[in-house]
Every structure is written in structure tokens, then in C-alpha cells.
Amino acid sequence: MPVTQGIATTAKRKLLGLLLASPAFLTVLFFAFALLVLLQTSLFESTGSQPTMSTSALTLSNYRKLLSDPLYLDYFLVTIRVSVATVILSLLLGLPMAFWIVRTPNRTLRAVLIIAVTIPFLTSIIVRLYALTQVLANTGLINQLLRWLGVIAPDEFVPLIRNEFGVILGTTSFALPFVIFMLTGVFRRFDQTLEEAAASLGADELTAFRMITLPLLMPGIVSAALLAFVLASVAFSSPLVLGGGVVDMVANAIYSQAVLILNRSLAAALAVLALMVTLLVLYLSTRLERGHRHA
Amino acid sequence: MHSASRGSFFRRLYLRVCIAAVWVARALALLLFFVPLALVIWVSFSGDAATNVPPSSYSLQWYRNIASVRELYDGLLTSLKIAAVVVPTSLLIGTLAAYGQWRHPLLSPRAVETILSLPILVPLVVTGLALLNVFSTMGLYSGFWNITLAHVIVTFPFVVRFVFNILSRYNLQLDEAAQSLGASPLRVFRHVTLPLMRPSLFAGGLFAFVLSFDDFGVTIFLVDTNTITLPVAMYQYMEWNLDPTLSAMSALLVVAAVAVTVICERLVGLDRFVGIQN
Known about the structure:
The complex is a heterodimer.
Chain A: H1 2-42, H2 61-68, H3 70-103, H4 107-122, H5 125-136, H6 141-149, H7 164-188, H8 193-200, H9 205-233, H10 237-242, H11 250-260, H12 264-294
Helix pairs in contact in A: 1-12, 2-3, 2-12, 3-7, 3-9, 4-7, 5-7, 7-9, 8-9, 9-12, 11-12
Chain B: H1 2-44, H2 61-66, H3 70-103, H4 109-121, H5 124-137, H6 143-167, H7 172-180, H8 185-214, H9 219-222, H10 230-240, H11 245-267, H12 270-273
Helix pairs in contact in B: 1-11, 3-6, 3-8, 3-10, 4-6, 6-8, 7-8
């Protein structure tokens, strides 16, 4: 009797747990359903803004078009260039920042630095991009400074916006806080006594860093790089605001196909490709992270 | 001997250059973050009709102008209204899920967290398009409720994470002690567990607010003529206008972000908020 009662209470408890979690599970279920509809949409010929699935047959033509049309190839190339540049820049700027935050003995400085990275993190991306346009525009801060210094003539300007350079600054500014926070997490777990051991064996700072610190941190650095890649590769607002219609990335193509050109099927196919790449990169990143933790 | 000392000279020079490069990178990172924000605040006090750097005169007229630019003012109200529904909803379903699955797990916590994280692994534009598709096939055309549901979908997983995070350090014996003293499960939750979860709930709620209030990538797919959120309104405004009203609006939002950051640091500690410490 007590055994069955025990089973009954366990079952009841499980049911209670499920009941409490059901709103969240239903929300995710609805979202998963939306993704399935997206996949389905991508497999039909487009018939305007309302994809009607019943009339036409399953087809891969949207994907074929994406992978063969030079126009889309161009979106992919721009996206890859911007993403790779963002990864490099955000590591070059992020690694020294993260080291600073973790290694400074001054607690106040550390708190200030964390606040300094959190403020842009919590500031609306549209505000940050609008602010960047004022720095980079033809009559913006940098060009005005160059004019004032006499480096360029009053009617000249250095094009810093409406090109890939401007977009890369936007995506880097967006990805950098994520990269810094991820790297500080990785560095915190690092055992600093290894460096001291290397120093006691006669290695100078640089050798200890190159031979001990860097190899041990590598998996963490690679997963930060993958995160930056994921964030940049689906960037939408940076090319929109700083690219000025000249630099369009995959996310911009998804938006314009879906909302402006009303070819939802093609937009869906692009979105499915973007989603697959993102999930693949994130999967690689978690595998690295897990391996690192066990090591 | 001679060559050894020369070698160490170059080695020291190399070390110096490396250290200098590290400081240059740190300065560039901080400049990239703060020069734009400082500039936008400076320009917001401009007296000129267009955004000039440097402003030729100063005034507060663009701050006064915010209230008279209908699209920005309405955008602000819309964003606040949406966040006012999104934050409590996300907190409720996120906390119930995390608590329920922690107390009476059906699957492993890791599996639950992975399943409930699905919405935040998907790129925002993909989420926006997927929801636009599904809402229009289901015949749901209320911009306000569509955006609200979308924001709940992309924010509640963070609440789950924050709450799971604190519960994993929580001692279940506290619950058992309270129960053994005769408290009902509901009373235990209300008087023991809930107060201990408060910092997580605060962080989760704030995170949900910021994500909802700032979201652009999902929302731009779902706006309609009656429901335009502030970030979308700001984007549309900058496409057609050159006056510093947007700088004034931006300056206010930067100040709000600074305030939120400082409040977080004081109340929960940013270490926890940004996930540096687990």
C-alpha cells in the first residue's frame, strides 16, 4: 500500500511539475510550430504575400535559386566578409578588455570596467547605430576633425559610412560586449598558478602567455569567436542603418524579400539557411565549451 | 655574450610593443563604445536645425520637441505598454517552469533548459519572419498582441535561465524544514523559496524589459500602422529627418541605460547579471 501511494505521489508531483511548466512548454511548442511553417513555406513556390500550400507541389526551387543566382551569392559574400572581420576585430579588442577585467587587482576599477561594458550592452542598438552614424557621416565627428586638422579639404570627406567599413564597426560594437563577457567567464576559470609556475621556471611574461595561457584558453577563445560570428552573420540593423542600402546582408535580404518584395517563400528559404548555419555554429561552440570544462 | 644581450634587448622591445598594443586595443574598445554615446548627448543640446558637429549654438529645444513629434512619442508609449504586458507574463511563465521543473523534474534540468532555450538560439530576423508567417496564416492581425507574444517568446527563456541559476544553488532542506514545521507547499513557496529567488526575478524581469523595449529585429516584421514601437519609430524617423530630436531621444535612452546599469550593480551585482559568475 505505501509503495503504490509513493508511486501515486511521485506521479502526482511529476504532473504538478509539468502543469507548472506547461505555459512555457506551450509557448515553445507554438514557436517550434512557427519554425515548421517557415520550413514548409520555403518548400513551395511563392504566390505573393500569402503562401498557399494547397495549390502547388513541393519544390526545392527557392533553395536552387538562392544558391545559383549571383545576386544572392553577393549577399552571402558580403555577410561572410563582414562576419569574419567582426570576429577578428572583436577578438582583438575583446581579449585585452577581458584580461583587464579579470586580472586587475583594483576592485573599483573592475566594477567600473564591467559597468562600462554593460552600458552599451543595455543601450538600444538603434540608438547606438544612430550615434555611430554621427561619428562616421560625411559631416560627422571624424570627418570634421580631419577637416579641422587640415588633413582633408573642406569639401572633401573620407567615406566611413554606406560601405562595409561602417557596417563592420556597427556589428563589432554590437558583438563586443557579448565577446568580452564570454571571455571574462572563460578567463575566470583559468588557473593562474600555472602562469606562476612557468615564471618560476624562467619564462618571461610573453613566453608564459604564448606557451601556457593561450593554449589553455584557446577553446574558450574559439567559442567567443563563434559567438561573434553568429551575432554578425545575422546582423540586420547595422547594415540597415550604416550600410545605407549599399551593403545588404542576408538578414536584410530576408526582410526585403518578405516585407517589401512579398516573396515569402524565398525569404523563408533564406531564413532556413541562416537558421541552419546559426544552429550548427552554436552546436560547435557548446561542444567546445563542454570539452573545455572537462579538461 | 654580446649577441645574448642584444637578443634580450630586442626581446624587451618586443614585450614593450606588445604591452603598448594591448593598451591601444583597450582604448579603442572604450572609444568605440563611448565616443558615439557622448557625441549623441552633446548634439542633443544643439540649437541648430540640423545635426552639425560641432553645434554652432546650444538649446534645450530638441528635448521639448520630443513630445510634439507624434511618431516618437507614440512609439515610446507603445513600447512601454508592450513591455508592461511582456515583463510580468515572461516572469510568470518562466518562473513557474523553472520552479516546477526544478522541484518536480520530469526531464533533467539540462534538457528542460535546452528545450526552453530554443527561442533565443534562433536569429531574431528568422523569429520575426516565422512569426509573421504563422500570424498571417492564422489570421491574427493585431500588431500589439502579435508583438507582445513575440517578445514573450524571446524573453521568457532568460527568466528560466536566471531562476534555474539561483535554484541550483538553493538548499532544498530549507523547504523541507519549513514543511516539517507544518507549512503547506504554497506557504513554503511564498515565504521561503520566493524571497530567495527575488534577485533572480529582478534580474530576469529587467532583462526581459530591456530586450522587449529595445527589440528591433523581430518587431520590424510585426509592426502595423497603429502599433509602431520606439526603436522602429526612431529608425523610420532617421530615414526622413535630419534634426536633432532623435539625438535628444537617444540621449534620454542612454541616460536610462546608465541608470539601469547602476541600479543592477547596486541591487544584484553585475557579475551575476551579465553571467560572469555562476
